[in-house]
Amino acid sequence: MRFAKIGIRPKLKVSQQGDAYEQEADYIASKVVAEPASVQSYQNLSDRNHRVQYLLQ
C-alpha cells in the first residue's frame, strides 16, 4: 500500500538558518516587496480592462 493513499507523508527536512536557499528566498522577497512599479502596472492593466468593458457594453 502506498503511503500517500493512507495519508502518511515523509518528514520534511529543515535546512540550516542562513543557507543558500534561504538567502535566495530573502533576496527575491525583498525585490518583490520593493517594486512599486509592479503595483502601477497592475493598476494600468485594471484601467485597460475597464475601458474594454465599456466598449463591449
Radius of gyration using CA atoms only = 22 Å
How many structural domains? 1
Inertia-based shape? elongated
List segments where confidence is low: pLDDT < 50 over at least 5 consecutive residues.
none
**How many individual helices?**
2
Strand proportion, as a percent range, falls in under 5%
The helicity comes to: 55-70%
Note the main sheet. none
How far from one another are the termini?
57 Å
Detail the topology: elements first, then pairings.
Layout (H helix, E strand, L loop, with lengths): L19 H14 L2 H21 L1
Quick take:
The protein is mainly alpha-helical. The protein is 61% helix and 0% strand.
Descriptive overview:
This protein is mainly α. The protein has one domain. Helix content is 61%, strand content 0%. The chain starts with 19 loop residues before the first helix and ends with a helix. The model has no long low-confidence stretch (mean pLDDT 71).
List keywords for this structure.
single chain, 0% strand, mainly alpha, 61% helix, 57 residues
